[in-house]
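Students often ask why we bother encoding 3D structure as a string. The short answer is that it lets us treat folding as translation between two languages. Here is a chain of 150 residues written in the first language.
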Amino acid sequence: METSINEERITDPVSATELSARVAALFAKDELAKALGMTWEVRGEGRVQVHFAAAPAYVNGRGILHGGIAYTLGDTCFAYTCQTVGATAVTRHAEILYIAPGFGGSRLTAEGHVHTRYGRNIIVDVAIRDDADRHIAEMRVYGVELRETE
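And here it is in the second language, the structure alphabet:
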């Protein structure tokens, strides 16, 4: 199952259901995330985890996880995190700091949380870790909320 709600961290079950529905609506249209086998878990308003199994095919010529895969995971986490606060947003700018190499065969988890919102702007911080809890990357995504006509 691609969705999950951590009921222990969300006190209002109606709210938890709504948060999950917001993310599910975007995931249903996210062909790349589905093709890559990503799954997600709502951790609360403004908090989402996205999980990804890094297959050996995602390793570069140096034998480590391709940085573009980590970026894609982080950017996907950004979009889903925005959904939990009702923001239909796209990335305007993103910075990623690669801390340690990732490897094929590992399971990566990106955890995003909303840092701040102002006007149509939203900033989300994303931490990416592997299944051994190694800190792979940190990402800060600067997004802009779309207007209804965009």
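Translate back mentally: The CA atoms of residues 5 and 42 lie 5 Å apart. Keep this in mind for the problem set.
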